[in-house]
Amino acid sequence: MLRFEQLTSVCSSGEGKITVPDVDEAYLQIGEVAERTGVTQRTLRFYEEKGLLRPPSRMVGGFRLYSEQDVKRVEHIRRLQDLLGVALAEIKEMVEAEEVLRELRAQYRPDSAIDEKRRQLERAIDVVQGQYSIVKQKTEQMEEMKAQLKERLKTFDRWMKELNELETKEAVAPG
């Protein structure tokens, strides 16, 4: 993490200037942000290219410098990805689960011993419970996000009502 004093000493060597929005703020380089947020450096550049992340300040040599606000934004983007999408690892798990179920169906024999049928059925139950767990977690996260947005809308509706009442009072008041 770099502080403004370090940035100015790096940049005052005559190589160029840097524009920083807040002299009291600490800045992180791209690798530090990637490590803290669990995304790759390429992902951070992609977010910037797509306008999800504002272009960061830069040091001499073009090194990107990110603020704590940028880190929070990346974390928010990741939360939204988790809530609104399904990660590749989860997709892989769901697809592999379907393959296991297909294999279990192919292996099933009506004349198999009860213990073998039980083992296959227990395996199928485990696989489907894993899939169910992924879907349930996503649903719960979406419900939580839905509740937060609903509360935000209630607050905005209340504020709008208060503004309308104020406007009505001002229109009625002699002036």
Explained architecture:
The chain is mainly α. Strands 1-3-2 form a 3-stranded antiparallel sheet. A hairpin with a 5-residue loop joins strand 2 and strand 3. Helix 5 packs antiparallel against helix 6. 69% of the residues lie in helices and 4% in strands.
Short recap of the structure:
This protein is mainly alpha-helical and 175 residues long. The chain has helices at residues 4-11, 30-37, 41-49, 68-84, 88-107, 114-172, and strands at 28-29, 57-58, 64-66.
Layout of secondary structure:
Blueprint: H1 4-11, E1 28-29, H2 30-37, H3 41-49, E2 57-58, E3 64-66, H4 68-84, H5 88-107, H6 114-172
Mean pLDDT: 83
Strand content: under 5%
Compute the CA-based radius of gyration: 27 Å
Q: Given the helix and strand composition, which structural class is it?
A: mainly alpha
Read across the widest sheet, the strand sequence of neighbours is: 1-3-2
Cα separation of the termini: 58 Å
Which overall shape is indicated by the principal axes computed on the Cα atoms? Answer: flat
Low-pLDDT runs: 3-21
Main sheet attributes: strand count, strand direction, barrel closure: 3 strands, antiparallel
- Number of E-type strands: 3
Task: Classify the helix fraction into a percent range.
Answer: 55-70%
How many distinct folded domains?
Answer: 2
Along the chain, the helix and strand elements come as: HEHHEEHHH
| Distinct helical segment count | 6
